[in-house]
Amino acid sequence: MTGEEPDIPERPDLADGPSAGARRLVVAALALLLTAGVIGFEAWPLTAWRLFSLSRGDRQTMWVLEVSTPDDEARPVSLEELPLRYRHAAWPMAGLPTASAARREAICRALLEPAAAAVDGVTELRLVRDRQQLVRRDGEWVTTHDREVVHACRPGADR
Amino acid sequence: MSTASAAWRARLDDVLWGPETGRRLVFVHTALALLIGMRVALGSYRQLADTPGPLFDPVPILAWAPSMPPAWGFVALQVVGTLAALAAVARRRPRVAFALAWLCYLVLAGLRGSRGKVLHNDLLLLWTAVPFLLAPVAARWQDRTPRRAHGWPIRSAMVIAALVYFLAGYHKLRRSGLDWAIGDNVRYVMLWGPSVGAAKWDAMATWIGEHLWASKATGAFILAFELTFPVVLLRRWLQPAYALVAVALHVTTFLFLGLDYWAWALTVLVLLIDWPAVADRMRGEAPPPR
User: Residue A51: its chain B contacts at CB < 8 A?
Assistant: First the structure.
């Protein structure tokens, strides 16, 4: 082969390829992946593959749980303290600002039971939007918090 | 048709449907079945039973599900999926067994992702396994002659993997621009840490975050790696290097951000390295003709 000739790969038994059904399956899979990926929509298992794609800065908004106890102590409850099925609750909570009152109460009640199991004597659960900022102070990175209670619920209380 | 056009068609044809040995097909098919079986058997699924309704947000393919299944439902899916994967590994009715294991995996991973957050942890394995749903099952370990009939599932799975990595890089550029790599982004990714779970090597993540040159180099390397991944389809000698870099990327993602991407790391290793040929070379045997 000379340097000017195209570098065509050798293909033994050229006719020995995939069946028409197999070709259709692969082409369909690639078309679906490309469509979701290029347009950028989420319909799992179709996805836009936006892994860490949004640039992060020194500010972020987190959704956190905060409880009150009988001695009036406010205490944050990390979702990591709760059973696995509650650990992604920050995503449903992120929809709270635009959610109906009923939806807010439903999410709060769904989280009240595990929060009460994690902390003795919970008298109130608050769903909090925490606007955080990372600042450098005295050589250390410190997170500042600006908390806003979006919804609260109490054990046993009616809606 | 011009020579250049014919050459590109031939190259595209080779990329998607090119030849591989039967032993490589058996290896990849079996390894993917094993990976699927491990994800199905070892995943923390049954703990998702009794997820309260307001926190259940089914993914589109499970939109018909009114709620998370009970614990026994998860266990049943895990048992069936694991047994099917083992049958595929043992080459007992491999096509049906592989498809059944894949289906159980799809449902389990979908249920895990039905809590509001888009989860990608299982998607590379799920998608690259798609061509193997119709892969020829008559291949034998003794088949050392490359054939297109044995190559197309492997080659098309490589194309899927390359596309996935490329799209991950593409969306970084599309949403954040070059600033994703050369701005402060990676610094803050490291300093903030994961939004779910915990970093396993917090000190190193903080070190990278505190040294801007290190975070920018990390960002530039990741973006370049993802965007150039499809090159491995045309320059096959690069495949082992890209596979090893992918493993390093996913291992460090686990260490610095606590995110579980071991299925991605192993899938890429299985697909991009011709392990039977490596074994042959280690035994001093000649590789098959290409």
Answer: 120, 168, 171
The strand pair at A140-153 and A74-77 is best described as: unpaired
Please provide the DSSP assignment of chain A as one string.
--TTS--PPP-SSTT----HHHHHHHHHHHHHHHHIIIII--BTTB----TT-SPP-SEEEEEEEEEE-TT--EEEE-GGGS-GGGTTTHHHHTTGGGS-HHHHHHHHHHHHHHHHHHSTT--EEEEEEEEEEEEEETTEEEEEEEEEEEEEE-TT---
Answer whether A48 sits within 8 Å of B171, measured CB to CB. yes
Q: Does A10 touch chain B (CB under 8 A)?
A: yes
- Answer yes or no: do A60 and B192 touch at CB < 8 A: yes
Whole-angstrom Cα Rg for chain A = 26
Give the closest of B16, B123, B188 to A56, CB-based.
Answer: B188
Q: Which domain holds residue B50?
A: 19-140
Per residue in B76-111, pLDDT (tens digit) is 999 999 999 999 999 999 999 999 999 999 999 999
Buried b (16+ CB within 10 A) or exposed e, A41-78: eeebbbbbbbbbbebbebeeebbbbbbbeeeeeeeebe
Domain-embedded: residue A30? yes
Condensed to tens digits (0 to 9), the pLDDT of residues B160-214 reads: 999 999 999 999 999 999 999 999 999 999 999 877 777 889 899 999 999 999 9
Q: Hey, are the CB atoms on A49 and B171 less than 8 Å from each other? A: yes
For residues B124 and B267, is the Cβ–Cβ distance under 8 A? yes
Q: What's the pLDDT band for A9 if we cut at 50, 70, 90?
A: very low
Q: Are B94 and B25 in contact (CB under 8 A)?
A: no
Show which of residues 117-136 on chain A sit within 8 Å of chain B, judged by CB atoms. Answer: 134
> Shortest CA distance to B16 belongs to which of A3, A47, A31?
A31
Residue A139 structural domain = 59-153
ipTM of the complex model:
0.93
Provide the domain count of chain B: 2
Chain A nearest C-alpha distance from B161 (Å): 10
**Residue B114: its pLDDT value, please?**
97
A106 touches chain B (CB under 8 A): yes
Same domain, yes or no, for A101 and A49?
Answer: no
Report the distance separating Cα B59 and Cα B216, nearest Å: 35
* Whether residues A49 and A98 fall in one domain: no
Q: Which residues numbered 27-46 in A keep a CB inside 8 Å of some CB on B?
A: 29-30, 33-34, 37-38, 40, 42-46
